[in-house]
Amino acid sequence: MSFTLKILGANSATPAYGRHHTSQLLNIGKHNFLIDCGEGTQERLKQFKSNTWKINHIFISHLHGDHYLGLMGLLFTMHLLKRTHDLHLYGQRGLQEIILMQLKYSDSRLNYKIVFHELDPTSNQIIYEDTQVVVSSFPLSHRIPCCGFLFKEKTKPFRINKNKLPENIPLKAIAQLKQGKDYTDEDGKKYLMKELTLAPRKSRSYAYCSDTRYYENIISTVKGVDLLYHEATFLAEKEQWATLTFHSTTHQAGKIAKAAKVDKLLIGHYSARYKDLSPFLQEAQEIFPNTELAIEGEEIEIKD
């Protein structure tokens, strides 16, 4: 099953130097989760040949414009493309009012239904779950209510060891073995799970930490994830300014990744004051070596 993250936008409040407002597309199997939707997101989706038709869940971390002002344009485009299936939208209190007001005053009636899910910015909560994946939100420390998102695959089934599989084994037996259980047929013949299966493939995880100042409370939530995105709006020398504006520096993002023992750190949300991003990578790697820059158009795959 695929598990890939595509960067659509990686800049902060002002687009600059060819960088755009925050947005990411996370593909987990059949799911295409859109995470934040800054201005121009639908243009980036088209540019990078991403199928908007398959987006059924959109997660908005908070209501600063660089994280949601591309949403209405995308919603109207989905309407014009004759979308009919439901769209689930997760966001802070007020997002539903903003969208419904624009629909009201433009006298617009969408072909599809928007299912609104209001986030709780004060506690961790499961906001979506199915047989393969669970999505949770968790509090961040920003100037207005803001949430991060944690995407985790559920425990996968055991794999059948084809080299040891007996001939004519019943399908019921295979299904039960994948669940980690032994199987006994009607004649009393036993099929032992430990002899006929291999360990499940790795369950992968991705944590998205949107705008936040240095906030150690998130460490336990993102602990051990395969990929952590953490904003790094400023270089380390601007730590005092980062704190005052409720943002983070390169070193602070690295400290969170190191303390949480994640596998890889991805930094983004760069301030428009910086043209050259190489110092961001250099500084973050001083604290956490396995760091990458969020670069628009690039795709990061998490393998199992």
Question: What does this protein look like?
Answer:
- The chain has 304 residues and is α/β, with parallel strands linked by helices.
- The protein has nine helices and 18 strands.
- The strands form four sheets. The chain has a seven-stranded mixed β-sheet. The chain has a seven-stranded mixed β-sheet with strand order 7-8-9-14-15-16-17, covered by helices on one side. The chain has a two-stranded antiparallel ribbon with strand order 10-13.
- A hairpin with a 2-residue loop joins strand 2 and strand 3.
- Helix 8 (250-260) runs parallel beside helix 9 (278-287).
- The longest helix is centred in the N-terminal third of the chain and has 11 residues, at 95-105.
- It is globular and about 70 Å long.
- It starts with a strand and ends with a strand.
Order of helices and strands: EEEHEHEHEEEEEHEEHEEHEHHEHEE
Structural class: alpha/beta
Helix residue percentage? 10-25%
- Rg is 22 Å
pLDDT below 50 for ≥5 consecutive residues: which ranges? none
Shape: globular
DSSP helical segment count: 9
> What proportion strand?
25-35%
Major sheet: 7 strands, mixed
Between the first and last Cα atoms, what is the distance in angstroms?
9 Å
* Order of strands across the main sheet: 6-5-4-3-2-1-18
Let me know the number of strands: 18
Could you tell me the mean pLDDT? 94
